[in-house]
Amino acid sequence: MDNQVVLGSVEFGPNGYESARLIMVLGHERCGAVIAAIAAIQTGEPAPGHIQAVVDALRPACDAAARLPGDLVENMVRAQVRLDVRGRDHRLATPGPASRAWPASSP
User: Which residues lie below 8 Å from residue 60, measured CB to CB, with a gap of 6+?
Assistant: First the structure.
């Protein structure tokens, strides 16, 4: 994951709570970051700080979800999961530096 997206994700939680000293991420529903990303995409207004990197990263899922019937937030979360899995599968199928260091096994 892009470092800017990680920073934006962490930055979003306490956004507006300058006194926050601890950030704890737990599983949740109706993600505020997803809702804020949808708003930024729909209005064209840039998000503050590194949060724009999160908006940019979620844009493909928002585009896919906008074409589906039903709840946009729920559809966007599902679309992002599908995109993440496809990306992970692609990365796993692409040999990395460690796999090139090992000699090919012979039958």
Answer: 79, 83
Q: Is the pLDDT of residue 14 over 60?
A: yes
pTM: 0.63
Measured CA to CA, the distance from residue 36 to residue 42 in angstroms comes to: 10
DSSP string spanning 74-98? HHHHHHHHHHHHHHHHHHHHS--HH
Closest by CA to 38, choosing from 86, 75, 83, 84, is 75
Q: Which contacts (CB < 8 Å, 24+ apart) does range 14-17 have? A: 15/48, 15/51
Question: pLDDT tens digits for 16-35?
Answer: 777 877 777 666 777 788 88
**Collapsed DSSP state (helix, strand, coil) of residue 102:** coil
